[in-house]
Amino acid sequence: MMRPGYLVDTDWAVFYLRGREPFVSLLRTLRERGLAVSIVTVAELYEGVFRAPRPEEKEAGLFDFLSGVSVLDLTVPVARLFGSYRAQLRREGRLVGDFDLLIGCTAVHHSLPLLTENARHYERIPGLRTISARELSAQNGRSSVDGGEGPAPTVRKRRGRKPN
Q1: According to the CATH classification, is domain 6-157 in 3.40.640.10?
Q2: 31, 33, 69, 88 - which has most CB atoms within 10 Å?
Q3: Domain ranges in the chain?
């Protein structure tokens, strides 16, 4: 499989699995550039599978989605980054949820922008770039996702001190 160009957050994967546009079209297009998800996202998606009335059907959809993406495991370097960032954020009194921090650290470690509609969940993670559907559509020369016109948003790069 090719080197991924984007890390897909759990929200985008859920929107895809529910058939919600523009996420289905965007992710189908981006598969050609390479997509990845964190193993943490896979775990979160499995919660949805097992909460569904027909888990077998939902799991088949999840397998289909995962067949076109790389799954990035939690590794010692990702865990180290997580511990470093979490300690820094704790000192500053600005904690981020553990799952979000693990997903964000996976993106930072692999130098991948994170496709998410929950940028606020990630804004305290140093060095993390997030991209929304609206921003991605604007970058690709389309009008904004909801059909409105307006200035093209920019990709946000999180800035912060790198922990020692």
Answers
A1: no
A2: 69
A3: 6-157
